[in-house]
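As a warm-up, study this chain.
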Amino acid sequence: QVQFVESGGGLVQPGGSLSLSCAASGSMFSLVAMGWYRQAPGKQRELVARISLSTGSTNYADSVRGRFTISRDNPKNTVILQMNSLKPEDTAVYYCNEVFGHIDSWGQGTQVTVSS
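Now compare it with the structure written out below.
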């Protein structure tokens, strides 16, 4: 019932930064939390960051903790992922979706490539 559109990806050098944006629309009354996922070539999709929509509390995967920051803009139904100190292993397609609920579908995601 909720649609997510990701944007902000691109090519960046190691150590650089990118900011990803997720615009959500639809029925969000049942959402508990939202998060950013990523999928690298040959690997399964993994959750890298999540944020509670009620409390604003956040959680991060060990691989990104201290480098990534997830935040929300409630009036605009937007979730942001600020990515700093990027590493080549961060290269992946990044997706935004709900956490703890049923995922109906995935958007196209946004490509993040970290390379020199």
